[in-house]
Amino acid sequence: MLAPSRVKRYQAHDLNLEGLARRAQRSLDQRPFDWQLEAAAAVMEVYDVVLDIVTGCAKTLCFSLPLLQNEQDIGLVISPLTALMIDQVSGKYGV
């Protein structure tokens, strides 16, 4: 038997992106760009999100911002960024 999802699904009218930006500024000392807030909103509304942005432009922030919506939320981010950067610098994948 499958357990029901405990993922909070926000509706667009439940989101306060300006408030989220202020929390990010206070907590992370970084003001998100509009595109980062829009991507975070899509994640919170449980849409699939694909970002085509160059390395080093803070795409990971888009997936971390939803955790600032509610201080009781937890998240697990698995990211091979260090390995990816090393591979790109070494030219392993022709980048």
UniProtKB/TrEMBL annotation:
<dbReference type="GO" id="GO:0005524">
    <property type="term" value="F:ATP binding"/>
</dbReference>
<dbReference type="GO" id="GO:0003676">
    <property type="term" value="F:nucleic acid binding"/>
</dbReference>
<dbReference type="InterPro" id="IPR011545">
    <property type="entry name" value="DEAD/DEAH_box_helicase_dom"/>
</dbReference>
<protein>
    <recommendedName>
        <fullName>DEAD/DEAH-box helicase domain-containing protein</fullName>
    </recommendedName>
</protein>
<dbReference type="InterPro" id="IPR027417">
    <property type="entry name" value="P-loop_NTPase"/>
</dbReference>
<feature type="domain" description="DEAD/DEAH-box helicase">
    <location>
        <begin position="36"/>
        <end position="89"/>
    </location>
</feature>
<dbReference type="Pfam" id="PF00270">
    <property type="entry name" value="DEAD"/>
</dbReference>
